[in-house]
Amino acid sequence: MPEMPEVQGLVDFLAERLTGLQITRTMVANIAALKTYDPPIDALHGAEITGATRHGKFIDLATTGTDAAPHLVFHLAKAGWLRFTDQLAPTLIKPGKTPIALRVALSDGSGFDLTEAGTKKSLAFSVVRDPSDVPGIARLGPDPLDPAFTRDTLAGLLAGRRTQIKGVLRDQATIAGVGNAYSDEILHAAKMSPYALASSLDDADIERLFAAMITTLTEAVAEASGKPPADLKDAKRRGMQVHGRRGETCPVCGDVVRSVFFADNSLEYCPTCQTGGKILADRRLSRLLK
User: Fold this and answer.
1) Which end of the chain is more exposed for a tag (fewer CB within 10 A), N or C?
2) Residue 238, C-beta contacts closer than 8 angstroms, at least 6 positions apart
3) Which positions fall inside the Formamidopyrimidine-DNA glycosylase catalytic domain (predicted)?
4) What distance in Å separates the CA atoms of residue 140 and residue 171, rounded to the nearest whole number?
């Protein structure tokens, strides 16, 4: 799943490459992914792209169209991606027979597709007059890389929450932009169990978690910066210390990276670094160890 660093990398690329170009046409191949009807998607035709912005894990392309300057806002969900080409093929896309959800053609002959792998379709795009009209954006919590997000901000978000810290970090209404992969990385850097209750963290824990969050995300954003969309996924994988590395050696202590599996994803952690050597029970086999 693309998370804040990869989404920011896409935003930087799109802002540099697309600003000043006009959208000449759009082709919707998955009508279920289009979440709005007013303005119609045709309102984008002839609109000039004026910039790209990130809201959590949402990408927002602003335009100077004729209908209240419509925004094309999209969320790539778990298996979505943006595929850009300098010369868009003229071939038509056939709904239901392609991973493409939306194709956008641009005035210099380039364009991009929003694609989604697998059978479970969650990718979503909207055409709106204001990004806050997208419910997912309206519900977002603060962005951890916003200069206004401080250690005290984090402490306030955690206070009184009897929820596992892994879930808190992934909750977009609490903290925007962090998902499964970077929550694993942040907790590893903070030397903290994913099952620790948010309300149980003391001042030293919160200080350590805040530092780990800012450092991990800042470094990942810097790594994604300047890379074209095709290179962002590999850059993400290379930067992971524990996420997606089950059975490999922890680069910090040399222990074996372990996993806990859930219905549709998993978390990775290092027992020595994060749980005092305790192996967390696999949800598929038994109840969670506390």
Assistant:
1) C
2) none
3) 2-123
4) 9
pLDDT digits (tens, 9 = 90+) for 51-98: 999 999 999 999 996 557 899 999 999 999 999 999 998 888 887 778
Tell me, what's the pLDDT at 289? 42
First vs last Cα of the chain: how many Å apart?
28
Exposed e or buried b per residue across 62-87, where buried means at least 16 C-beta atoms within 10 angstroms of its C-beta:
bbebeeebbbbbbbbbbbbbbebeee
> 177 and 141 in contact (C-beta within 8 Å)?
no
Q: How far lies 126's CA from each of 51, 134, 135, 196, in Å? A: 16, 7, 10, 37
What pLDDT was estimated at residue 14?
98
Burial class of residue 203 in the structure, from the number of CB atoms within 10 Å of its CB (0-12 exposed, 13-18 middle, 19+ buried): exposed
Instruction: Please tell me the distance from the alpha carbon of residue 114 to that of residue 123, in angstroms, as a whole number.
Output: 8
| DSSP category for residue 192 | -
Angle between helices 203-224 and 229-239 (to 10 degrees): 140
- Domains with residue ranges and CATH for the chain: 4-138 (3.20.190.10), 151-274 (1.10.8.50)
Given a contact cutoff of 8 angstroms between Cβ atoms, the answer to whether 32 and 121 are in contact is yes
Asked if residue 7 lies in contact with residue 74, where contact means CB atoms within 8 angstroms, the answer is: no
Q: Which residues of the chain are under the pLDDT cut of 50?
A: 286-290
Residue 102 near residue 44, CB atoms below 8 Å: no
